[in-house]
Amino acid sequence: MDSMVRNPDVKQRDAAQAVVVAVSSDAIFDPEVEQVHGATEPLRKGDAFSFMKAIQVVNERLLTMNSDETLLFDVILLSNDSEEKHSRIIASAKHYGLDIGRFCFCNKEDSIESLQSNKVKLFLSTDTKDVCKALQKGVPAALLFRQTDPHHQTEDQLKVVFSGDVIGSSEEMLHGLREQGFTETQLQGFKTAKGSVKEFAVLMGEMRRRFGLEGSPLCTGLMTVWSSRDVCASALKTLRGWGLLVDEAFCMAGAPRSPILNLVQPHILCLDGLYHMEGFTAMS
Amino acid sequence: MSEIKPTDTAATNAGEENDWAASKYFSDSLKTKKPKPPKPQNAVTIAVSSRTLFNMVEERKIYEEEGVEKYMAHMNQQKHENEPLMPGVAFPLVKALMTVNSRLRQLYPDSEELFDIVLMTNNHAQVGVRLINSINHYDLTIERFCMTGGQSPIGYLKAYMTNLYLSKDGEKVTEAIKEGIAAATMFTSGDVENQLSDTQLKVAFDGDAVLFSDESEIIVKQCGLDMFFEHEQEFENIPLKQGPLKCFLEALGKLQRKFYAKNERMTCPIRTYLVTARSAASSGARVLKTLRSWGLEIDEALFLAGAPKGPLLQKIRPHIFFDDQMFHIEGAKELGTIAAHVPYGIGQKYHKGELIEQTVKDVKDKK
Q1: Does a structural domain hold residue A275?
Q2: How far is CA B52 from CA A39, B120, B185, B339, in A?
Q3: What percent of chain A has pLDDT over 90?
Q4: 3-state secondary structure of B92
Q5: Parallel/antiparallel/unpaired status of strands B54-55 and B86-87
Q6: Is A241 exposed, middle or buried, given 0-12, 13-18 or 19+ CB atoms closer than 10 A?
Q7: Looking at the UniProt record for this protein, which Gene Ontology cellular component terms does it annotate, in alphabetical order (chain A) (predicted)?
């Protein structure tokens, strides 16, 4: 059971045509440790703030080019917070002028069902564990990368990075992962990542093509962390076949990904769903 | 520039080890005989741009004359994508590095102290397929690459812990040197590949403003040769400060010692040369003493006392020759040597011994 509240300050998108993404409220607003009963001032900005701003830039550019554009980002804020916090969340969104179409308030256990019933293309969270858990339960999800480097933060360009390990993978690789000791639950995460990426990539490809090679408010990339260069080439060709020509590509061959990610500063980072990368988030 | 590779204890953590383990598994499980790439902190990382690795003159022309969209369309055409690109000016160097790696792997099968070649290009990722196809065609061991889609590669060079960056773009190279990364601009020379050794990597360095700082070079330019000789003799026992390529020589020396440790000094597949305009009698001692104070060896030190470097380099046939002065680079190129310019120090303000600003002023005065 969830309660969906439309945001009166934001023009509602056509959900069938839009890129519907759900963002956890803990990512947009800093989850406060101390909940002051009855407090009314706006919540503090969370780690996903630059992402929200970047989404806005993309939507604005698309609408400037075509005021009837329907291929826009449509953000649903997903909140498991107690009822007394609901109005504060809505008011804070209004205060910051965030482009949030709808607020979805539900229990933690009902989150997955809410995501599915609202045809959410991607669930976004700043918590790697949550992302992997969602993937393992069959929900398309990706990481909102914590942009902590003030020198490299981007608010005027949305950066989306896809996983070459997932897109370029073969059946043989999946079998190999099983042999290496990954559990069926973890492998389910990988399979969900692989199965759900096409739809999102196709939409990103279409959106990216609205802009030229240079000066685009949307920047797409491919990162291959542990697979070979041939897997990377295969991923590039696959994405191309889906209509997405990525701007940047990185092939790490096992080298640490964090230094590169800290430079790229993606907003949306597609994971392979396998690990609980505690060390990873600690690095940001 | 004082360390070959910075050691960062924060770098070892669960996430990285996971990535590393998965990658190792992946290359182990492949039935190919491809060796596993080393961890960046253990390797000597050499980043090459796409235009130094491959000859992309035709493609560059399209980019410059018709713009980036036409260039991309050209590169993406199916018929071109599968055409291997022709080898570029850094190609012989890359092959030589691979030869050294196979010798190292024979002697030290478990060691990660190897060369790691990274393709660092600010080409758009779509060119990636053609580049990977070409790398496959020549069977090059380049597993890591970075296609920045137009962004500056400088930050990425640091992120990949690069020991040496080679590019055709002088601006990027200058920026890299300013950031403390050894770098040089490569120029196309004649077809020398069949004349180069395929069993021994040969690297030649100029001394001042390449291995050493430009402190003495400044004295020559500002006070003349006599002052220079006097100064160098007086300061013979004071080591020169290090230059942008000192750490790279150090990295080469470290690998050389691995061969010496296994009694392979005579057949060591790395040989280093110092090719300097200094003369042995008057200013050479300081150079040799400086190298000794750094604990570095150089296989052959050649003091030319001002004679042109071209003919000597032609005999040596290095896979790469580093110099800070374009005058020497041009002289080397003319006789077929693969030369790389290090845009560092006072030498950049001069051309053929004349201060560049001054010659402009003279022209104006004559009008």
Answers
A1: no
A2: 62, 10, 9, 12
A3: 51
A4: helix
A5: antiparallel
A6: exposed
A7: cytosol
DSSP-derived letter for residue A227 is: S
Cβ–Cβ of A229/B133 closer than 8 Å?
no
Calculate the alpha carbon distances from B295 to B2, B247, B257 in Å.
13, 12, 12
Structure tokens at B20: 């590393």
User: Residue A178 corresponds to which tokens in the numbers above?
Assistant: 């099983």
**A174 interface with B at CB cutoff 8 Å:** no
Residue B19 with chain A: CB contacts under 8 Å: 225-226, 252, 254-257
* Cα first-last separation, chain B: 46
Residues A69 and A162 in one domain: no
Whether B323 is catalytic: no
A178 in a structural domain: yes
Taking CB atoms and an 8 Å limit, are B156 and A260 in contact across chains? Answer: yes
Band of the pLDDT at B358, cuts 50, 70, 90?
very low
In this model, does residue B346 exceed pLDDT 70? yes
From B150, B344, B335, B310, select the one nearest B242 (Cα to Cα): B344
Chain A contacts in chain B segment 145-164 (CB below 8 A):
145-151, 155-156, 158-160
Q: Inter-chain contact A228–B27, Cβ cutoff 8 Å?
A: yes
Q: Which domain holds residue A205?
A: 158-270
pLDDT given at position B367 = 40
Marked catalytic residue, from B169, B191, B206, B208: B206
Give the total number of structural domains in chain A: 2
Q: What is the pLDDT of residue B11?
A: 41
Q: Examine the domain organization and report whether A93 and A52 are in the same domain.
A: yes
Residues of chain B with C-beta less than 8 angstroms from the C-beta of A256: 11, 15-16, 19-20, 40
Is A138 in the same domain as A167?
no
CA gap A45, A49 in Å, rounded: 6
Report the CATH number at residue A54.
3.40.50
User: Alpha helices, DSSP H only, in chain A?
Assistant: 25-28, 49-65, 83-96, 111-117, 128-136, 164-167, 171-179, 184-208, 229-241, 258-264, 278-283
Q: Based on C-alpha coordinates, what's the Rg of chain B?
A: 21
User: Is the CB of B132 less than 8 angstroms away from the CB of A233?
Assistant: yes
Residues 6+ apart with CB under 8 A from B298: B205, B249, B272, B273, B274, B291
pLDDT at residue A41 in the model:
82
- If asked whether residues A201 and A138 sit together in one domain, one would say no
**Residue range B201-354 in CATH 3.50.50.60:** no
In A, which residues are within 8 Å of B10 by CB distance? Answer: 283
Instruction: Look at the block and give the residue holding tokens 């200013």.
Output: B283
Percent of chain B at pLDDT exceeding 70: 86
A140 in contact with B, Cβ within 8 Å: no
B34/A contact by beta carbon, under 8 A: yes
Q: In this structure, is residue A281 part of a structural domain?
A: no
Fold of the CATH domain B35-186: Rossmann fold (3.40.50)
B1 contacts B247 by C-beta, under 8 angstroms: yes
> For residues A200 and A122, is the Cβ–Cβ distance under 8 A?
yes
**A209 in a structural domain:** yes
Domain with CATH 3.40.50.1000 in chain B: 35-186, 201-354
B135 interaction partners in chain A (CB closer than 8 Å)? 229
